[in-house]
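Re: beginner question about structure tokens

> Can someone show what the tokenized structure looks like for a real chain? I only ever see the sequence side.

Sure, here's an example I had lying around. Input first:
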Amino acid sequence: MKEEQEFINDIQELKTRMVNAQELANLLACTTQYIYLLAKQGILVKEGPSQFPLAENIQKYLQYLLKSEKGSDKVLYWSEKAKHERALRQMSELKLEQLDNKLHDAKAVEVVMNDMMSYFRKRTLAIADETPSKLVGIKNPAEICDILTDAVKEALSDMSNYKFHGEV
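And the corresponding structure tokens:
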């Protein structure tokens, strides 16, 4: 019975016990500046110069921590919202560049490149069909080289004037 009474007295003493900012900071594992900041924000209770009710401030600090954990969901929400907005902005910029003809659709580029490569292949293979009649009877290697060089240059000139006539 005596122990119970001492325990109750100790609890009553803790409820009314006042501590300074340094003691409260040590108990809450933070700095005295943070204690004063929390008091200024109304999170902690300050009674008199550097006097803080111990039990009340521990309860208030725990409630503050619980609220800030719930607030972290808000931080996560706004972080995700910012990422989403950034992605929307990037998509809009890409669409704008596409409209300004600075960016082309990958499928359109593929169609044009396939057509160009097909034209290149057809034109280079045509060299083999054009030159044999010109080379008949020529035995001088320099003359053969000149004829082949002229045929390749003509094919390259034709290819440099390539225009896409298909539909994308």
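Each token stands for a local structural state, so reading them left to right follows the chain. The chain has a mean pLDDT of 83.
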